[in-house]
Amino acid sequence: MSAQGVEPVVEPRQLPPSMVERMSLILEAFTSPSVRLTLEEVARATHLPRSTTHRILDQLVRLHWLTHTSFGYALGQRALELGGGDKAHGDLRAEASTVLHELQVRTGMVAHLAVLEGAEVHYLDKMGGRFAASVPSRVGGRAPAHSTALGKAMLAWLSPEEVDERLEAGLSRFTGRTIGDLPTLHHELHRIRGRNGLAFERGESFPDIACVAVAVRGPEGPLGAISLVGDTSAPVERLAPLVLKAGRAVSVALFPGLEIQRARVTRRSVVRPEGAWSTETMSRLVAASEGGDWI
Question: Model's pTM, two decimal places?
Answer without folding.
Answer: 0.64
